[in-house]
TrEMBL record:
One of its GO terms (cellular component) is plasma membrane. GO terms for biological process: inflammatory response; innate immune response; signal transduction. PROSITE patterns: LRR, TIR. Residues 791-938 form the TIR domain. Its main location: membrane. It is found in: Membrane. Pfam families: LRR_8 (PF13855), TIR (PF01582). This is Toll-like receptor 21. It is a single-pass type I membrane protein. The gene is tlr21. GO terms for molecular function: signaling receptor activity. It comes from the Eukaryota. Residues 1-21 form the signal peptide.
Length: 977
């Protein structure tokens, strides 16, 4: 199998070397970094097919979400400069020993989320510079001894989510890694940490969460240098497992969901108590927490963070924090069962606290705290988080006891009622999160005191109207997020006061128009405006620009207007946006785009128009003429039918062009060449014809080393799926079409001229040839070549049915009777029934010593008679056998024989017989002479002599009888009666 893969790799590599285009079979070079490649969602299952055409300069490579199952030896040998390699989320099962050979500069290797069950002991040989290795979510049951020995610079090793059971083998494998700082063994099946080998002294972070540890089983110095330890979710781990362990270096210890008695643990351990995460340690009631706090206070006076989350605490009354040491930074009560936090009175002695988290609880409301006494005000508290609760209402002065908070998180609740005075007194507030609630209204009093607010997030509520002066006090606000609401109307002074606003998000609302007057307050400060997914639509081109005075706006989003899209972009819509750098017009069904629509966007760097047109896009010449600074243009699925220089030719700074899913059949190369800085071209899913029209495009894509054509080698020919755009045959395109057309036309004219002449001269000869050819294949030829003495008949009589009376009454009795005993072949008597008539005629001619043609005017009009005389004359001229006798029943003028070229030729060479007509003086004597001459002619040898003479074609009269008899004596002539 290895040899097979090596051969396949060599073939693919040779093919890649023959093709010089800057494109790749299964990978895309990252636009911003040509040395970074992504090979995602490809159909090839061989690693060689995916990577063998990548350049030697590759530094970062991502191969994800593919069906690759095998990495053969030397798969990446041609990528010696590779530093970061991601192979996660594939179907890897087998990696051969030299799979990563020659990757001496590799620093990061991610093999997560595959099906690897076994590793070869020499798999990582040579990876001396590797600092990060992840084997997360595989099927490893054990590790070969010494597998990590070559990784001397390894900093982070992650082997979580496998089925490892032997910690001792792991310890031996990592014991020599003197630079290892992080080791993650979570989600395995380890039962103990017993080993004769110590952890590397460099190790600072050690995760062994979610295993089956029932003891630690390690020596006292095992954790002597470890700073972060996670032993959570080892449900059988007992308290005494920590007896004698040196934990003085620990700065974070997590023991959630273990069997450890935290109070007892603190009494037997030398761990710095202030660095223990007490979440999920069973401290759920007053007595346990009191005992815990008293013990903590004996050990230290200050604690930086106290984490009591996930302990099932139901009430703040169960948290007697006055017994605990003073908390300097944060108190975390997340993931408990709290239904109320009151006014945080339980923190009465924790006056230094800066952050309080009560996320993921069961809070339903925040009560008013206006009447709390002075000593319950927490002046140092700066951050409150009540996210992920069930809060329905926030009453007035709910934060009176925390006047100096800077960050308040009330998001992801069900707040439907926010009292107008709920936030009263929060003059130091800088960040307010109210997103993902059920708010329907905010008023001018709601944010009246938040003079220092900088970020306000109201996304995904049910606000329908922005009332006058709602934000009048927020002069320092820089980010306002109102997206995902139901806003249909903003009152005239709704944005008053927002003098510093830089980013405004109004996407996902029901706005029908853009009111210019609304933005006058922050026209000199706004840099980002999001109006996507509203109901904005224009019916006329002639409207003034709503953005005229937004001199600093750099990011504008107008995509996906509901339900029909913008449909029309007014001519002056973007007037005044000289600083705009990014414009989004996606999914807008635009049916008309004025040629000067983008004229003012001289600073634009990014423009996306994908899916923004209905049917065939009518981009007018010059529409992009002023976008000389544009670097990225996305025009996917627009129905563009004509990619012309008049439209795209001025984009001289363009680096990325996505044209995929359009309908043009050709792309002019001169247009592409005018894009002098183009680096990335996507022309997938375009019905580009594989014809001479795209010959130059083929050359351009194959030979341009500066433009990456995405998946060029997979672009099919629409009408020939066996070929691809890059290799369809262009040889015919090199021909001089004019020359070929000239000679082709001349040949056609010559044939048209020659055909009638050939028809007249050769028609019967060709027809005869056809019938002879037929006879050849019907096995008649051998019989036709029989010797003359073996002929079946003495003569074949060729006549027209209208002359049948003369043949029956005159010819047959005189040749078969009267002592002549000739055997004649007649149509009506001797033709074989059921046989093809042509075969009968051919057989009759060649089975007879002579052929007698009874010529009359009717005879000349019969096609079958013509065929019979042609067959007989063929024997006369081409076989040199004198087999043809002509008998004229009536006088026929020569002009009537002009179309019978063969017959005239016979008449010029031979004597023919004329049946004595009524004009003869002695008919009986003439008829007797006629029959004598015909019998004599039939008895004569068929061999043709070299010299023939004409005989007078006159009826025999007594006065020329002597002349006639002189000729009769010459056996070479036939006599005319």
């Amino acid at each position: 199998m290895a040899a097979h893969h090596l051969l396949f790799a060599a073939i693919v590599l040779c093919a890649a070397q023959l093709i010089r285009g800057y494109s790749f079979n299964n990978c895309i070079a990252t636009y911003s970094n040509k040395r970074s490649f992504q090979c995602i969602h490809r159909t090839d299952t061989y690693m060689s097919a995916i990577v063998n055409d990548l350049p030697k300069s590759t530094i970062n490579l991502t191969i994800c979400l593919n069906h690759v199952w095998h990495i053969p030896n030397n798969s990446f040998v041609h990528l010696p400069n590779l530093q970061n390699l991601r192979l996660d989320h594939n179907h890897l099962r087998i990696m051969e020993p030299l799979a990563f050979h020659n990757l001496h500069y590799l620093k990061s290797l991610n093999l997560s989320f595959n099906y690897i069950s076994e590793l070869n002991s020499s798999l990582f040989d040579g990876l001396h510079n590797l600092t990060f290795l992840s084997l997360t979510s595989n099927k490893l049951k054990q590790l070969p001894e010494g597998i990590f020995y070559p990784l001397l610079n390894l900093d982070t090793l992650i082997i979580r989510q496998n089925v490892l059971t032997d910690y001792s083998g792991i310890a031996k494998s990592v014991s020599n890694l003197t630079n290892l700082k992080t080791l993650d063994l979570c989600f395995n099946k380890l039962t103990s940490l017993h080993s004769n080998v110590s952890l590397p002294q460099s190790l600072a972070v050690f995760y062994v969460c979610r295993n089956n540890l029932y003891t630690l089983g390690c020596e006292g110095s095992f954790f002597k240098s470890v700073e972060v330890i996670d032993l959570s979710y080892n449900s059988e781990l007992p308290t005494m497992a920590f007896q004698g362990l040196d934990l003085r270096s620990v700065k974070y210890l997590r023991l959630r969901s273990t069997s450890v008695n935290i109070v007892k643990f603190l009494s037997i351990s030398n761990v710095p108590a202030g660095y223990v995460d007490f979440s999920g340690t069973g401290l759920q009631n007053d007595s346990l927490i009191s005992e815990f706090c008293k013990l903590m206070r004996k050990k230290l006076n200050w604690i930086v963070k106290l984490r009591l989350g996930n302990n099932g605490i139901r009430s703040l009354a169960d948290i007697p924090l006055y017994y605990c040491p003073k908390i300097k930074e944060a108190l975390d009560l997340s993931h408990n069962n709290l239904k109320s936090v009151g006014c945080l009175c339980f923190l009465s002695r924790q006056t230094y606290l800066k952050r309080f988290d009560a996320e993921h609880n069961h809070l339903t409301s925040l009560q008013s705290c206006e009447k709390t006494v002075q000593n319950t005000v927490y002046w140092n508290l700066e951050e409150l988080s009540y996210r992920y609760n069930r809060i329905l209402s926030v009453n007035s002065n709910a934060f009176h006891h925390t006047p100096n908070i800077k960050t308040l998180k009330l998001n992801i609740n069900t707040i439907a009622f926010l009292d107008r005075k709920a936030l009263s007194g929060l003059k130091m507030l800088e960040t307010l999160r109210l997103d993902n609630n059920l708010l329907t209204d905010v008023f001018s009093e709601t944010f009246e005191d938040q003079v220092n607010l900088q970020t306000l997030n109201l996304r995904n509520n049910r606000i329908a109207v922005i009332f006058n002066e709602t934000f009048h006090s927020l002069k320092n606000l820089t980010i306002l997020d109102l997206g995902g609401n139901k806003i249909t109307h903003i009152q005239p002074s709704g944005f008053n006061g927002l003098k510093s606003l830089a980013k405004l998000y109004l996407d996902g609302n029901n706005l029908r128009q853009i009111d210019t007057s609304l933005y006058r307050v922050f026209q000199d400060t706004l840099t980002a405006l999001d109006l996507q997914s509203n109901q904005i639509r224009f019916l006329s081109e002639h409207i003034s620009s709503p953005f005229m005075n937004l001199s600093k706006l750099s990011d504008l989003k107008l995509g996906e207007q509901k339900p029909y899209g913008l449909t029309l972009v007014p001519r002056s819509f973007f007037r005044g946006l000289h600083s705009l750098k990014s414009l989004y017009l996606t999914n807008n069904n635009i049916n008309h785009l004025a040629p000067d629509a983008f004229d003012d966007l001289t600073s634009l760097r990014f423009l996306t128009l994908d899916n923004c047109c209905v049917g065939l896009a009518q981009l007018l010449p010059g529409v992009f003429k002023n976008l000389r600074n544009l670097t990225r243009l996305i025009v996917e699925n627009m129905g563009i039918g004509n990619f012309s220089k008049e439209i795209f030719g001025n984009l001289t700074e363009l680096r990325l062009l996505q044209l995929n899913r359009n309908v043009m059949q050709s792309i002019p190369v001169d247009t592409l060449e005018s894009l002098s800085k183009l680096e990335y071209l996507d022309i997938r899913n375009i019905p580009l014809s594989c014809t001479c029209e795209n010959k130059l495009l083929q050359n351009y894509t194959l030979n341009n080393q500066h433009v990456q054509v995405v998946y060029l080698y997979n672009i099919p020919c629409p009408h020939d799926l066996k070929h691809r755009l890059y290799n369809f045959d262009t040889k015919v395109c090199d021909m001089d079409i004019g020359e070929y057309l000239f000679f082709g036309t001349a040949a056609v004219i010559f044939l048209f001229t020659l055909t009638p002449l050939l028809y007249v001269k050769l028609y019967w000869k060709m027809k005869f040839g056809y019938y002879v050819f037929r006879s050849w294949f019907s096995e008649q030829w051998s019989r036709l070549r029989e010797k003359e003495e073996n002929c079946k008949y003495d003569a074949f009589i060729s006549y027209n049915s209208s002359d049948e009376h003369w043949v029956i009454n005159q010819l047959v009795p005189n040749l078969e009777g009267n002592g002549s005993s000739f055997k004649l072949c007649l149509h009506h008597r001797d033709f074989e029934l059921g046989r093809d008539i042509v075969d009968n005629i051919v057989s009759a001619v060649y089975s007879s010593r002579k052929t007698i043609c009874v010529v009359s005017r009717s005879f000349l009009q019969s096609e079958w008679c013509s065929l019979e005389i042609q067959l007989a004359s063929y024997r006369l001229f081409d076989e040199h056998r004198d087999v043809l006798l002509l008998v004229f029943l009536e006088p026929i003028a020569e002009r009537q024989l002009s179309s019978y070229h063969r017959m005239r030729k016979v008449m010029l060479k031979k004597t023919y017989l004329q049946w004595p007509g009524p004009g003869c003086t002695d008919p009986m004597q003439a008829q007797d002479l006629f029959w004598n001459q015909l019998r004599r002619a039939m008895r004569m040898d068929s061999r043709v002599k070299t010299e023939e003479k004409d005989i007078d074609k006159a009826c025999v009269n007594p006065e020329n009888k002597e002349h006639l008899e002189n000729h009769i004596s010459d056996e070479n002539f036939y006599l005319l009666p």
